[in-house]
Amino acid sequence: MSSFTGAPTRPRFAAPTLGLIALVVALVIVVAGNYHVQSGENGGTGPGIVTGIICVLLAAGLFGYVVPRTTNFERTAFILASIAVVSIVAFWSGVTPVLAAAALAVTQRADTPPTRRVRVAEALAVIASVAALIVTLAQSHF
């Protein structure tokens, strides 16, 4: 007999894995956005280091404190995904993928599947993360 339920399952990653992937993407965005900046342009080594530290601290706070202690999974995931989408206006900061990954990590801890509203917000957050990476790499001086 088969135990197949017929319902598709989402791929699951442990929260630390999601956090590490998001942090790597965030740091790629920060480095690419601040590499070989011409005189008179925004960015450079100093701002890049500060922005990178902010991303590391945000990831540590989200994945070390918020994600493990969340009790209202739907609300927390929706808020994190919504902030990730809004943070695309500062795509160069690298925070978008960290927030999106935290939203995904929160819903993976839930016993029930996320609602449609949360799935849409998470999908938009992931799209915003990919867009931030693509735009930063396209505008970089690599």
Care to give the gist of this entry?
The protein is 69% helix and 0% strand. With 142 residues, it is mainly α.
Model description:
- The structure is a single chain.
- This protein is mostly helical and 142 residues long.
- The chain has one domain (15-139).
- Helices cover 69% and strands 0% of the residues.
- The longest helix is centred in the middle third of the chain and has 25 residues, at 45-69.
- The radius of gyration is 17 Å and the shape is elongated.
- The model has no long low-confidence stretch (mean pLDDT 91).
User: Low-confidence parts lasting 5 or more residues at pLDDT below 50?
Assistant: none
Give the biggest beta sheet. none
Distance between the termini: 55 Å
**Number of distinct helices:** 5
β-strand percent reads under 5%
Range of helix content: 55-70%
Classify the secondary structure makeup into a structural class. mainly alpha
Task: List the domain count as a whole number.
Answer: 1
Q: What order do the helices and strands follow?
A: HHHHH
* Secondary structure tally: strands: 0
Notable features of this structure?
mainly alpha; 5 helices
